[in-house]
Write a structure and sequence with these properties.
globular, alpha/beta, five-stranded mixed beta sheet, 343 residues
């Protein structure tokens, strides 16, 4: 099989990655105190040392714009043709165009902008969507994909049924893509969707289903909640690990590679035990990834924080075949393969 990265066809590469990490934190002690769960369980079972917490005046669009500016560096924002927001659907305002706001904040006046949403898997799969657009449209040469999240606002630590979301943290990332930039080449992606989970996680108090009763809504309905944790776990636990493995295998197969070719894994936040099991499937160790236990789960930004930290630590090297893997409630699992370094 021919590896796509080794051909001379037109490609799209990642020119740079930017992040914005808030200074504030909620550590395991804080989460334990407000949830009633022992701190040792928070640290060991949940895999949380701390999560990042944005200030009240730090907005989703503002953090996204800071990450975008970090990715741009010295590049003229007027050279950007496309700004895409693929982060949290909890934005500055309800029914708000976050992509357009970020476009304005970074001065990308010549760009078009729009949004992609698939909860926490959107950041990974957006690479496939935007790459395809850039290859099909001669006018799109540079694009910036932005993910930002302030879902820490929506976590109710007293709601034990929603405990799998206690790892949610705040932060943002941005990825600058360039056509025919022959480094960090985006290869193929794959996604698995299972709509049985669509109604399992939500903020009940906002939306057309409950609009007529909006004024009578309980305050707890302003937070993310799990409708029926037992039911969700019964459906999710038997399939989630296998779906992570399958979605990676399919993305690798589409790209012309196999599992033993992988050199770096950039995952969504997951507890150490699951991540170690996933690494072992691909004959990797913790030196081939980055644990997000000091960041928390920053929605679609996770994988890009992992890439940037992995490169900083020398774990992500030129020549590595990189796999990004994520999952989002709803439920979707997605993976994208990147050939890192010069091609």
């Amino acid at each position: 099989m021919i590896n796509q990265a080794d051909t001379k066809e037109m490609v799209v590469g990642i020119r740079s990655i930017g992040t914005y990490i808030p200074e504030g934190v909620r550590n395991s002690e804080y989460i334990s105190k407000h949830s009633g769960i022992p701190e040792e369980v928070i640290r060991k079972k949940f895999g949380i040392k701390q999560v990042r917490r944005a200030k009240p005046d730090e907005t989703v669009s503002g953090m996204g714009a800071m990450a975008a500016k970090d990715a741009l560096g010295d590049i003229d924002p007027l050279s950007i043709d496309l700004v895409v927001y693929c982060g949290s659907e909890y934005k500055d305002y309800y029914l708000f165009n976050c992509a357009a706001k970020i476009q304005d904040l970074i001065g990308a006046k010549n760009a078009i902008s729009f949004e992609i949403h698939s909860l926490c898997s959107a950041g990974v799969y957006s690479l496939s969507i935007i790459k395809s657009m850039m290859l099909a449209d001669k006018s799109l040469n540079r694009a910036i994909i932005v993910s930002s999240s302030k879902e820490g606002d929506l976590i109710n630590y007293s709601d034990i049924e929603s405990r799998f979301m206690f790892n949610f943290g705040d932060g943002a990332s941005a990825v600058l893509l360039e056509k025919n930039y022959r480094r960090n080449i985006i290869l193929q992606s794959h996604m698995i969707s299972d709509g049985r989970f669509a109604n399992d996680v939500m903020v009940k108090g906002v939306g057309c289903v409950n609009f007529a009763n909006f004024d009578e809504m309980d305050s707890k309905d302003k937070y993310l909640c799990v409708r029926d944790l037992k039911s969700m776990k019964e459906k999710l636990d038997p399939i989630t690990f296998d779906n992570f493995v399958q979605v990676i295998h399919k993305a690798l197969e589409k790209s012309g590679y196999d599992f033993y070719d992988v050199g770096y894994l950039a995952p969504i936040f997951m507890k150490r035990s699951m991540l170690v099991n996933l690494l072992e499937k691909f004959e990797l160790t913790e030196e081939n990834t980055f644990l997000l236990e000091d960041y928390g789960h920053c929605q679609s930004a996770d994988c890009y924080i992992s890439l940037k930290e992995g490169e900083r630590l020398g774990r992500l090297k030129d020549g590595n075949l990189v796999v990004l893997v994520s999952a989002g409630t709803g439920y979707t699992w997605s993976s994208t393969v990147i050939k890192w370094g010069d091609v």
